[in-house]
User: Fold this.
Amino acid sequence: MVRYCFVILFLLTSLAFGADYWPTQPGATFHYTDGFDGTRDVVILPGNWPGDFYRNDTIVAAWGECWATDVFQIDASGDIVLSHCEYTCEGFIDPDWIDIEPAIRILDLPLVPGSMATYMVMVNSGADFVSIGVSGPETITTPAGTFETMVLSVSSLSASPYLTRTYWLNRTLGPVRIDDGHVWELERWTGVVANEDMAWGAMKGLFR
Assistant:
């Protein structure tokens, strides 16, 4: 009984501090640069429902200033799913947005190099196929330092710019490089709580 209580307590603690490779702590911030004049600032915000969290982007580049919000959730398995994206720029009358049904499992932990999954989803009432692949590990250097990463590639059959991107994910900091048609590299961050030595993804893998 004590052993089972320990496992439950560990899982709850892991969920509270966030999933491996994708920080969920409200208030955490990440500043990216494109190596020229462009900047991208991300802040993690709590969502409206238990388990939800928002990843808010503010992008300032040659084409102007843009804002994006992605709505994620930690599901019952401790994985990260994406359910909604919203994007707007200076001069937009209304924001572009997409609702995804069912929500896409962006991170299926633990990350396994060579794994690939394809999901059929409804995006604003239209069908789409989204493929997610994992490769790595890969060591990269950004203005923030040198990081061990796993590479997560997300592609949409409809070539939706909201669902087609590549992330270089560090276990603690999450995306340290993002390629969404424009390459962004991490320069600095605040508010990230490091995971414990036994990662949530590794613990979850023991029960598979």
Remarks:
- The first helix runs from residue 2 to 17.
- The two ends are 21 Å apart (CA to CA).
